[in-house]
Amino acid sequence: MDIRIKSGFFMAIFMLKISNRSNPMIAITRPTLLLNEKQCKTNIQRMANKAKRLNVQLVPHFKTHQSAEIGEWFKASGVESITVSSVKMAEFFAKSGWKDITIAFPFNMHEIPAVNKMLEQNITLTLFIVNSEVIHRLNETLIAPVNLFLEMDAGYGRSGVSTENMDKVKELVERINTGAKTKLYGLYCHPGNTYQTNSVDEIKGIWAEVIQKLTGVKTALGAVGESLKIRIGDTPGCSVVEEIQGVDEIGPGNYVFYDLVMNYLDVCNESDIAVAVACPVVAKNEGRNEIIIHGGAVHFSKDHLFDANEEKFFGEVVILEEDGWSPIVEGIKLVSISQEHGVLMANSAIFEAIEVGDILGILPIHSCLTANLMKSYTTFKGQEIKHMESL
Amino acid sequence: MDIRIKSGFFMAIFMLKISNRSNPMIAITRPTLLLNEKQCKTNIQRMANKAKRLNVQLVPHFKTHQSAEIGEWFKASGVESITVSSVKMAEFFAKSGWKDITIAFPFNMHEIPAVNKMLEQNITLTLFIVNSEVIHRLNETLIAPVNLFLEMDAGYGRSGVSTENMDKVKELVERINTGAKTKLYGLYCHPGNTYQTNSVDEIKGIWAEVIQKLTGVKTALGAVGESLKIRIGDTPGCSVVEEIQGVDEIGPGNYVFYDLVMNYLDVCNESDIAVAVACPVVAKNEGRNEIIIHGGAVHFSKDHLFDANEEKFFGEVVILEEDGWSPIVEGIKLVSISQEHGVLMANSAIFEAIEVGDILGILPIHSCLTANLMKSYTTFKGQEIKHMESL
Fold first, then answer.
1. Mean pLDDT of B354-364
2. Which residues of chain B does A131 touch, with a Cβ-Cβ cutoff of 8 Å?
3. What is A161-192 written as a DSSP string?
4. Interhelix angle for B112-120 vs B87-95, to 10°?
5. What is the rounded average pLDDT for all residues in chain A?
């Protein structure tokens, strides 16, 4: 055996030998998205507890799970208001019984008929505004009032009005306040630059700056600004930041499952990751120590990370157990994917231990995109949980 | 106006002004995958003609479109046998009436029950073999015989038995031939390395080598090899290679739509691309010349190309017309995507010409993954064509 392998590895191989080919409660034949229901509920409850402790309202983002049933688990933890990333997703969760929905995407004016249908059903909707044309159109065509967040860009640089651009902020605020159908609710910021950090301190630094800039905008708006709510959205910050004076609401989403990106950012423990894709081993390439699995871009998307040697990879391997999975197995990685194929590169000992026909677990780089592609979840009890894309 | 803009651009802007905000036959409100039915049928017929001219059988790969209805267009061009990339896809097309299906993926032995169900319905199935365990299992558990392709690796390095490894080839052939349920059909090669080339000549060179290696394997097998069919699968080669002496069958898929990857490889003209995603413009960032569209990783996946300046991009912009779209607009590109957001970077003239509320067309980098995510097609007549993932 390869002596470079880390301790714990022998146990892992042993587990592979005994458990992987035995008969689990779920008979897996194809790529299957496994959901650790217990861990998922722990993640949901932990963020709910944190929001309570810090005295902010949690308005979780449902773009990660997109599931009516998982939505109910949030409801059980006290959540009443939710965030989504498209009008289509708002329609889905409105049908699932949610009455207070924020659509966290610069509002697309072609969606006004769909918004009016939800307003007819007395759904409270909060939309994102970044430009005056849309405010005008909303006031012309909505059948009932909506809340508006000014989406603010505090340095991330994707969408939103720059916090530096007070002229535009004031212009938008005035237009909103003079419209009968548009009610200014607050300032929203998704500091997605926390995804590009190298340490938790850096994430905290970004949040400190974002909070300072948002409260600065609020102050600069004078009396109009006083009642505005400040909401910040990213999972990295919501998971690790404790200093949130000035923030009223948080809207993270990914924490429901977490994933390897979050683990690499030190935002979650590896054991917090609540989803893994079970993939059948279909071939082994002796000589190259490569293992081919059924599991590719149509299951994982093409997000990747770089390991310590700057090598790109698309997922980590875990050994499936009856009610969970092992820690990440060292010495094997998902190194390339095409439409349906995944190629794992392994050291010799691991290569030898894996057989054609084994089912391996793969922790995803980005759980939101993986869930969106897999379109349903299977719990350890074999229960299938639907994703909105499968309906 | 910016004088660096290419000729033809003024016309493009003009078209943008006149057509884009007028009333097309399809009212687009959300990201919508437009299908140019006429071009798609031209692509289908052109490959059928080429196969006829070169006297090879065309067994098209359906992993790109995954649509029962588009499948019928192939049938109209004379196609009777098809290729798919998963057992799930085989089940779908068997239900859609196809009777002769190759599953072009190293066979996953957990799928034997699903294969037996299709055999019960008298579907002729051809599977991929790369290892002896699977041959043994097939012979033990199949209810009727299947054809087998030995998947060969002639240098691409993903899956398949190396053409250099005649010992393994012979071992597999012998095992297949001694089994009652396994009938050796031929040698299959997907030379995916044609996707990494810089010229059509390089693609032709790869094919020449692949053909030489496959015919070499056939010869080395002696009498057993004589009846074996040689099939090669990639769209780049099938589109541009004319010298195919020794090849019996071709199995390309992507050519049904083509995409920017194929255009960059000089394998198709830009005008051959038969799909574009219509995306609403939701915001403009003055100062940065950035335009935000609703169109992100859940619509395009995350495939990208690099432009002449080595800048990564995720799609090209076209102007939508009533029954087609313009050539690619120079001076604007889809430069970044997140889950639902797309960010276009434009030169000043184009930036000014585009308004919030416009619907832009985006040519995808990789049409297979885009179609898999969008899950339905809309023709210029407003007809919706289903993808198997929407059923």
1. 96
2. 283-284, 356
3. EETT-HHHHHHHHHHHHH-SSEEEEEEEE--G
4. 20
5. 93
